[in-house]
Amino acid sequence: MNKTNVLPILYSLRNCPYAMRARMAIFRAKQTILLRDLVLSNKPAEMLIASPKGTVPTLVLPNGDVVDESVDVMLWALNETDPDDLLHCGITKINHQSDGEVDSESQNDSESKVGNKAASALTEILALIYEFDHGFKPCLEQYKCAKRYRENNIVQCRTACQQYIARLEQRLTGQQFLISDKESLADIAILPFIRQFARVERQWYLKAPYPHVQKWLNNYLQSKMFSKVMAKYPLWEDCHEDILFG
Q1: What is the pTM for the complete model shown?
Q2: Domain annotation covers residue 96
Q3: Mode of pairing for the β-strands spanning 9-12 and 33-37
Q4: Residue 151: which domain range?
Q5: Residue 109: pLDDT above 60?
Q6: Which of 10, 20, 58, 216 sees the fewest Cβ atoms within 10 Å?
Q7: Does 105 score more than 90 pLDDT?
Q8: CA distance 174 to 164
Q9: Can you tell me the distance from the alpha carbon of 132 to that of 121, in angstroms, rounded to the nearest whole number?
Q10: d(CA 69, CA 67)
């Protein structure tokens, strides 16, 4: 059997922030998928059969299952393999006795603590993503519209966004990443939306009092990962050529 026949298929849109973060998670998970780039004005029939709502990203698994929410695509990829521990499941180690033998009761207790801490970490990660998806994203859309149509409420719209940016700045003041000194799913999930925010009023943003957010964002935008994820491929509808990605 051809290997490509058993690979997941990802329908994606290059500059869509939701599709972008799905691709980043797949890349970081070192998963290999078939990438089908598209434009929303010309959605492939195969994609609409798999997911009638017609949004990106849409991931079609070899068994026919469909994952069509971006966070779910990210979690699918990282639950398959998570070499950088972006889900923070390996946040602590089990303690061993000094003589090298493991006390079973102590080990069980330690494993329980590991599980509790990992669950707590993932809960925090998902809560932060939810906050930005459902709080920051609507504010960002209003800010982008105010700029595009030269509306007179652009300062108000920017201020609404800044409440969220300021919270990220506070987080990044004492640590390297959004959850801790260790990178997490939250960083790559929120990144595409902060990228959009930075592009609305570029000159204002460069002078804004958010040096830690700016550094955090720049580090990602200048990374090899981002270059790989943002590579431009032929549209699938034009050539029907699957691209191996990951």
Answers
A1: 0.88
A2: no
A3: parallel
A4: 127-223
A5: no
A6: 216
A7: no
A8: 17
A9: 17
A10: 6
